[in-house]
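Justification of resources, computational component.

The compute hours requested in this renewal are based largely on the per-chain cost of generating structure records like the one below. Each record pairs the submitted sequence with a full structure-token output. That output is archived, and it is also reused by downstream analysis tasks.
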Amino acid sequence: MNTDKYFETRFVEDKSRTKVWKAINEYLQKYIAEDSCVLDLGCGYGDFIKGIKANSKFAIDLNQNLFSNFSDSNVKFTAQSILEQFPYSEHSVDVVFASNLFEHFNDEELEVILSNIKRVLKPTGKLILLQPNIFYAYKEYWDDYTHKKAFSHVSLSDFLSSQDFNILDIFKKFIPFSLKSRLPKSYILTKLYLNSPFKPFAKQMLVVAEKK
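The structure output for this chain reads:
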């Protein structure tokens, strides 16, 4: 697959996303101590890793064109596949985060990725995942031609449990399926949305797990 063409088609940078991610990061911060080491897998333009508060921040993405996007930040960026061993010491990372990533890999590849994650995570380190939930997003899920795997809130929880993780929190409806929608990209509206018990249009889930 021509990954450059895929990135050009699916991941055109949108500066207005920063407003939405500011609210998401503030919500997620309760799971992430400010003195921790955080790794963002498939980081894209870095909306999460650049906005989250942490002592040391690392990011990995296959897209080599992202180097310049991190040049003025305190994030150490590495361009590589997450199927390769991560360039960090064993048990050196407190939190691993990934958004809209696991669905792009098959079962065998996910086994490799989880092995890589567990190698670098400290004991009781956290894995935080934002994922499309096939239970709610079944109509649009396969519109992305690179999707290989479909997870629901039940199957993702079971998969992580089988990989020696304890589930700390799971929100089966967290945010809308895509930030490319016509909905206004507003910090205040996103903050209100995340803290509301009602989640119209929500088709992505949030799973927070802890390494056993």
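Residues 140 and 177 are 9 Å apart (CA to CA). The mean pLDDT is 91.
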